[in-house]
Design brief:
Elements: E1 10-13, E2 19-25, E3 30-31, E4 36-37, E5 40-44, H1 54-66, E6 70-73, H2 90-103, E7 109-114, H3 116-127, E8 132-138, H4 144-150, H5 155-162, E9 167-171, E10 174-180, H6 182-188, E11 204-209, H7 218-226, E12 232-237, H8 247-265
Parallel strand pairs: 5-6, 5-7, 7-8, 8-11, 11-12
Antiparallel strand pairs: 1-2, 2-6, 3-4, 9-10
Helix pairs in contact: 1-8, 2-3
Length: about 270
Amino acid sequence: MIDETLTKPQRLARLDGQTIAYRVRAGNGVQGDGGAQKVGVVWLGGFKSDMIGAKATALDAWAAAAQRHFVRFDYFGHGESTGEFVEGTIGQWREDALAVIDEVAEGPLVLVGSSMGGWIALLAALARPERVRGLALVAPAPDFTEDLMWDLASEEVKEVLRAGKIWSELSEYDEEPYEISLKLIEDGRRHLLLRAPIDLQCPVRILHGMADVDVPWQRSLTLVECISHPDVMATFIKGADHRLSEEHHIARLVSLVNDLCRDIEH
């Protein structure tokens, strides 16, 4: 089988002239003798991540074996999409996700969101309740720009941002530092979720490592309490970090997504 992570992505044109890079796997659109439509899956990656990481490619391999429709993409300023990362915002990346859902993905969907992708997945599910039938969230990070960036920033950092400058922050996940702007923080405030009930209309599954130093696992408990839908389950993995990229963690994620899709279909 050809390794699709090495092929050129397709591109979705945006009104602002930018393009979203994506890869789509066609599935067998029906399931079972009854011929009901299969649930498709969309991968939403994390902050400054891309669609060819270990979790995304593992889900793609699972989708191929299961003949299930699967879409993965890079947000504006990420991976193979166009745009400068530092100019991106939560609102921009939400719009990217909705464009992929509206113009690329087919049928009822499960959104799989990792870290920031968990926040984007929640926002997309609220915007497209008729399409999104389930969420699988990996160390979800709703509201991170406010609670885990701004609130934890020193006064020095805040003054740099208030002056309209860019703050560069080293990261263990990328060779280049993360470039943070005040625009990212201010736009994030327009999309905060954990301050009120979240009126989701679909089941939610969460995986979170208890040794996560980037997004504390207790935030997933807060998320569970905020979600109004009754079918919400969280699994906390002792000793696991933010990435959850060990083989057995990825296998658990794939199993979780597979089970969620089957539960929705039946």
